[in-house]
Write a structure and sequence with these properties.
Length: about 290
């Protein structure tokens, strides 16, 4: 604490002139011993430190990659694998290719579910085969468009539902990878497409029948179109009718059977009681649910 000391002069003249001439003792402010002076050549430098900025929020692709990396932990050397189709499945295929290249995985055989997955796998050096030569698979990993609480799925918005269902039904285990936006209380509940693959012949006839089948759900049936405005054609040379539901499907199992009973319907995107594990990546982390 600074102290104030008043020092009286030994003699003080009563005249103003003498007072000005004499050297009176000054008023002294005594301060603590630290020195506030800086050398003339020194510069006072002030540094401001801010707290590290928070990490940016995870994007949907970040979440998909987290789920994909977790799913690949199920893969072991020597397996015959079903390779799914879609944006999430692409992360899985990329990771498998990476592990094969590093030598962490060996003797893997992949069964692709689409032409674009086949192209990606070949570019990564993943050995491929077909169901004819490997009718029983150890494991398939694929994404999903919707996942309900019972691990039933809607798949096929990428257009590969027929081959996906064939390969994944032939697998001992089927692991699904998705981000948290794909969770629904009931299938069809997202309001997005539930695909049905139909033959090109009289496709409109089946489109009308499919829409009438789900009148109670307020279904809107639309032929899927490519970017050029022409009908989308699957790898199997078929068309796709997309069903858009205003309310979730009441009985998915019954709906699947009724759709399949229509002549000219090749396959539908309801994947019921097929998944053995579902991996969901969300803002809180990655969760694994198994049957």
């Amino acid at each position: 604490m600074a102290t104030l000391s008043l020092v009286s002069p030994s003699s003080i003249s009563t005249t103003t002139t003498n007072h000005r001439r004499r050297n009176a003792n000054p008023l002294i402010l005594r301060t603590p011993s630290f020195n506030l002076r800086t050398p003339s050549h020194a510069r006072l430098s002030i540094k401001a430190f801010s707290a590290p900025s928070p990490s940016p929020p995870l994007t949907q692709d970040d979440l998909k990659k987290l789920a994909a990396d977790k799913a690949v932990e199920f893969v072991k050397s020597g397996m015959v694998l079903g390779l799914g189709t879609g944006s999430t499945a692409a992360f899985v295929v990329a990771k498998i290719g990476e592990l094969l290249k590093s030598g962490e995985l060996k003797d893997i055989v992949g069964i692709p579910t689409s032409k674009r997955t086949e192209e990606q796998a070949l570019s990564l050096g993943i050995p491929l085969s077909i169901l004819d030569d490997h009718p029983k698979l150890d494991l398939s990993i694929d994404g999903a468009d919707e996942v309900d609480p019972d691990l039933n799925l809607v798949k096929g918005r990428g257009g590969a539902l027929l081959r996906e269902k064939m390969v994944e039904a032939a697998s001992e285990k089927f692991v699904v990878v998705a981000d948290e936006t794909k969770l629904v209380k009931g299938l069809g509940g997202s309001g997005l497409a539930m695909p049905v693959e139909v033959v090109q012949f009289c496709w409109k006839y089946n489109l009308i029948r499919l829409q009438e089948l789900f009148n109670e759900e307020g279904c809107d049936a639309k032929l899927r179109l490519s970017e050029n405005g022409k009908p989308y054609v699957t790898d199997n040379s078929n068309y796709i009718v997309d069903l858009y539901f205003k309310t979730p499907i009441k009985d998915s199992e019954a709906a699947g059977k009724e759709i399949s009973a229509f002549e000219g319907v090749v396959e539908h995107g309801l994947f019921l009681d097929m998944a053995t594990a579902v991996i969901i990546a969300g803002k809180e982390g990655v969760s694994v649910t198994t049957k």
